[in-house]
Structure formats: C-alpha cells, structure tokens
Model the fold of this input.
Amino acid sequence: MRRSWIGAGLALLLLGAVAAALVLGNRTGDELTVVRGVIGSEKKPFFDDPQVQAAFAKHGLKVEVDTAGSRDIATTVDLGKYAFAFPSSAPAAEKIKKDRGATVTFAPFHSPMAVATFQPIVDALTKAGLVTGNSLDIRKYLDLVANGTRWEDLAGSAYKARKRVLLTTTDIRSSNSAAMYLAVTSYVANNDDVVSSPQQADQVAPKIAPLFLDQGYSESSTEAPFEDYLAMGMGKTPMVMIYEAQYAARLFAADGAIRPDMRLLYPTPTVLSKHTLVPFDEPATRVGRLLTEDPEFARLAAKYGFRTANPQIFTDLAKGTQLATNLDDVVEPPTYEQLERLIAVIEQRYL
Amino acid sequence: MRILLALVLVLGLAACSPGDGGDTLKILAGSEVKDLEPLLKESGIDVELTYTGTLDGAEQVASGRAGEYDAIWFSSNRYLSLIDGARARLGTQTKIMVSPVVLALKPEKAAELGWTGKTVSWSDIATAATAGRFTFGMTNPASSNSGFSALVGVAAALSDADEALSAEQIHAVTPRLKGFFSAQRLTSGSSGWLAEAYTKRPDVDGLINYESVLLGMGGKLTLIYPSDGVVTADYPLTLLTSSPKKELYDRLAAWLRTPETQRKIMTTTFRRPILPEVRPDDRFGAAPLLELPFPNRRSAADELIGAYLNEVRPPARTRFVLDTSGSMEGDRIDALRQALVTLTGADTSASGTFSRFSNRETVTLLPFNNLPQPGREYVVPEKNPESTLMLIRGYAGGLRAQGGTAIYDALREAYQKEVRPGGYTSIVLMTDGENTDGSSLADFELFYRQLPEANRAVRTFVVLFGESDVAEMTRIADLTGGAVFDARQGSLAAAFKEIRGYQ
Done:
C-alpha cells in the first residue's frame, strides 16, 4: 500500500493541497454543512463508516444518506429532497443528469459484477462445463437455463435441490445490480454485441426475461440477497449476482462473514458498475469532488471493496485473495434508453 | 386461556435516555414481533408499537393510510411488495433476524411416523396427512404470515414446480393441498395464540409455525425441517418514505444489528441472527435449509389464499350469537348490520375479500333479546356463492333492536346445536350490555360442563361492545378456549373481520 502512495506522487500532493484549500475555505465555524443524498444500498456501509464521516467533517461536511434502488432513484424517488443522487450505474446517472439539468457528474468508484457462491456449487458447475477457474461462462449458463435444468439434475451435484439453476438477482424493476446482469446477459443473447436499437431490445428481452421472472419474488435492494447469502447460506441463495465490492469489503474486513466454503466467480463477460454521483448543488459537488480526488476517500473506498482511479490500492488489498485483479472480458452496458426498453419488456411480463 | 386481543394494542416503551426529547419512533407491526418488546426497552430509543394483521397492515401501507407511522415491522415484506404502489412507500429496509416456517410434532408422533432424525419432505408429510396419520394446527394464511408462508411452501413443494407458482399451477395442486389440510384441526389469527391454544388440545399432534415459536415452546416438540424447502421470515424493519424520523430509525436498526443484540435476539427469542458474524448456535440444527421460491405476482398470492379458504381448508361452521336488545337501537344495530354485511363480500379490499364467508361455510345467525330468536342457517355453496351471500346480507339488514338481554339462554342454544366432525365450529358472541333475562353465567357454566366433548370443544370468541360486562365476557372466552376482541373503541366490522382469522 505504501508503494501506491509514493506512486501517486505529486498528483496526490496537489490534490491534498486542493482539499486543504477547500477545508480552509469552508471552515468558517464549527457548523457542518449537511448534504443529503440518495444512494444505492451497497454504498451505505461506506457512508456509515465513522472514518468516512470524520473525513467529511474535516472538510466541513456532514453527509446523510437514504438508500433506494438505482432505477427508483432515476425514476420514482423525489429527488427534490436531496442534494445529490448516487446510483450505482452510469446509465441511471446519465438519466438523472439529463432530467435534473446537472452539469457535472463524478464516478469515484467502480466495481465489476460478480457471482458469490459456494464450493459445492462451483464443483457442480465446473463438472457441467460452465465454470473454468473463477470464470462463469454466461453463454453456457443461458443454455442451461433455457433447458430448465434443476440443481438435482446436474451430474455429481452435491447440492440436491429441486429448484432450477438460476442466479439470484434483485428485482429488475427497481435495482441496478439486476440491470447490470441484464446488461451482461443481453450482450450475450444479442450475439455478443451491446443492445443498441429498440429492435434488438425487443428481440433479446423475451429470451432473457425468464432469468428474472422464474426466480419468483426478488428483493429490491442489492444488500438484501447478499445478506441472505451470508447469513442463510447455500440453501437460500446458492449463487447471487453482486457487486464485487460487496464481497471484497467483507474479505478485507476479515470479520468472519466470508466462510471457507464461499467463492467468488466472475461472469464472462462481465460489466463494470460505475457508481456515479450526480450533484444538485454546490456542497454536493464538493462531496463528489472529494470522493473522486481526495486520496483519503480513495483509501477508505478501497476498504469497502471499491476499485478507484488508482488501481494499485485495490491490487494490493486483493493480493492473496479470491479477487481477480485483471478482468479481461468487460463489456459496456447499453444506453439508458435501451436498458429501459429491455426492462420495460420484462416488466410487462410481471403483470 | 386468558388473552385479550385488542384491535389496536399500543405499547409505549419507556425511553431510557432522557436526551431523546420525547422523540418516538412509531412502528406499525405484526404481532409476530411482540416478543421483542422487552429487548427493545434496552435500546434506549423510544419505540411505540401498534399491532395489526399481515394483510391489513400491507393494505394500510400500500394505500398510504399508514402515514401516522414512521416504520413498519412485519415478519416479511414480500406480500406487501406485490401490491401496486407499495414499493414507493417503503424506504430503507433492514433485515433483523430470520426464522423459517417448519413442522413440529410431539416426539412420540414423530417416532411413530419414522421421522425422527430422518430426511422428510413435504411430499412425505402430505402423504401422512392425507392418510390421517397425524393432525396439526396452523394460522390462517389471510391473517398471519406464518400461515401464508406455510401455504406458499407446501403448495410450491407439492406442485413439483421448479419456479415460482403461477395461477395455473395453484389450480393443479389444489387437490393435493386438500389432502394435506384435511389433517388441520386448529386455526388461528396469530402465531402466538396458536401455540397457546395447541397446549390445550391433546388431540392435535403438532403445529406448523415459525421455528422461533416452536423452539420457544420449551423443547417439547420434535422439529421437522422439510428437505424440499421452507419459506423463511426475515423481519425487515422498514422506514416509510413519508417519515421524517430517519435518524431515529437508523439508530434503532443499527442497535438491533449489533453483535450483542443479535446474540440476545437468538437466545431470548429463538430467531436466527441475520448478522453473518454471529453464527446460529446448536439449537437450530445443522441441516442447510433450502428456500422455496415465493410468488412474484400478487395475483398468484391471492389465488393461493383464495383457494385455501374456499376450496382446500376444512370448512368452517360459524355461529353468530347477536344481541338485538333495545339498547342496540340506533347506531349500534346499524354497526351490527354493517359488520355482517362486511363479511358477505361487501368489503372488496384484500383483507375484506379474504374475510368474507367462504365457499362451503355454514353460517348460523342467532339473534336474541329477552329470548333467543328463531335464527337462520346458511350454507355457502362450493361455487357461485353470491346468491347465498345476498340472502345473508338481506337477513342482516332486517335485524331490529328491541327487548331485554338473555345472553346465556342464547349462548346455550348455540351450544346445543349438533357439532358435526370434519370442520371447525366456533361461536361469535356479541353483546352491548349486561345479562338481564333468563339463565345466569353460573347456570351457563354448569350447563357447559355437562355438554358432550364435541360441543364443549366449540370456542366462543366474544366481542366487547358498548357496555359489555368485561369480567363475564372474559370468563366465557376463558371457559371455552376462545378469545376476547374489543370493539368498544374501534369498529364492530373490524372486530368481526379479525375474528375471521380464528374461525
């Protein structure tokens, strides 16, 4: 970690000076400026961290957050109550920026989508040819789902469940992590190409709708199914689509939540969730800038498993863990409009 | 059985920290979390819990009628989330603890069935139930989450579906559900009351209930975790978007999720911790629990509850002993007519739909004044219930108030009617005043004790109204194993609706 600090060198010093200027410029009294934001639930532990709060306080800021699904943030949440929105994806942020006429956005953290699972599941999927090393082949996975394969049907599966082989996701109608999964699966179902026209969306959506609908009830925020995974284990959630950061944060914290039989797989291809802050006023812009430019926040963000502009911080922390430091096969998500169109087609099938 | 089920039980938990400045977090809750009250007192946060039924609560929240509350706390938000418009009213949701719905049997019965320490599936359980090899109690799925979860689980398991149930699959599985529920002998509107009622019923072999309730019964039962899966409650403490008390909510949620509180929840309420750092101890058993898929469409959930009430469950035989004495004149007789009309399907909300007189139900209306009046018996047909419901509505509309109050003569009459096997017979006693004519409470007790066993097993659910004699009414409920419902402040229709969960 030390090396990364040195590596960052002058740039960091410069940023520090900028930050110091900001602090000095705003610390006219002891009163902290309260900045309220609505964020994706996976970033709540970061904002709740006393160290993060102390770091904001140094700059005269007190950041308060509510959580909501990223799609809800972009559509139904009353943003008038907040100084910033911090959804978990670039498409949602793009929409908010446009709707609210915001001039800047900040993308301080990103995290690839990953699959949290268990060793017996990895074994079964490896035998079935879906998993190689830590990579889950999405094309083969889609084929397996299309066949309606049940866990108990997989040859040599130690996980004897009648339910179908299906990744648990959040509700596609409200949550970003499900939308990011949709980005990956729609890319594969669209013959390895980003869905870029309404025609393609209409063609692809029915093919991937069962991935969501057949799960039955799904939760609206990303923390919920991951919590189920951690607390209730394989019986409830054999594999769940998450942000890598959720898993990494628990690994780094070494709090015993990640038990020896837990595994992290990366879908191939995967997609990056670019957590993007859209500020609506000046103090919120400062929050965005601090998160993006201040090395103290980059260091704290890494603790929560996020990758930041300085990859070395994450690489150092990830050394010797299950986490992948290099991701080869990363695709772009569709634009907000195409993503919405895909979701809308699937949404209709819930009725 | 002395249990006072007030319609709205408000409990102000004393604030331990004076710094709160009277700031109270008002929570609309399911009675399932009532056992956490003592623990909540240690939080140092002023919490006020108001209890309501699952469906009722869900509708209040979805329709925006829960605006006076800051948060909700039910055993699950799943059904609620399926209602149109509900999700927008739900803010941050924090899961607090976990408890699966499972079957528990008396150890002898479990051994007799060869299930002790064995892998048992819902299919095995259904086969044994259909063959009459054991009996059980379960809460009403329309009133209580444990019953609803059990119904979803059993239906999903028996349908052999590999995904969430659709309406067609529910239709197909109905005959098997009928076999399964033919072994049900005890029903209830709440999980706690079910557990208590069970202890007085030696003929009932077991219960389907939350693991926490079953473990809390003192280790007298053998818990059976079906190998094909369960439905698990996760008790999300949920901030309502309309509430300004976010900070207070955050503090309570954070406190509930500290390792220390989580351990206390586990040891005092037998629920599994949600915090992965706190591992469940030995009492919960080591078997991994498979989770069955839960419907993602409201239509499927409603279809399932409707099928249970109208086709699957053993039919109810419901006797209403109704005070039509002179003191009921005016608003009161109107309220009574309205309460009965509500149960004929006039209330089109989900909780109203599911509390209407069900298909196959026998409804006997027994009005009284200074003498029992000639009553009427209606049998709601298996299909097309509307015409019979119309007749009941007409009869209710014709009720007139006059004369004295012969409570116990009327109740005797209700108890003398034949009790046929294969359904639940229960009595609702509604009176607005003291007994003025005919036999006394003491006379009734003597009479009751001499009744044949089957008649004595009929419970009386009493409704306090107007100037009811609370002591005597409570005595009747205790004597017959019923319960007391208080409509003195709330509406009579709401009390009648709540009693439906127990019939």
Notes: The beta strands of chain A are 33-39, 61-67, 84-86, 106-118, 131-132, 135-137, 240-243, 262-268, 270-279, 330-331.
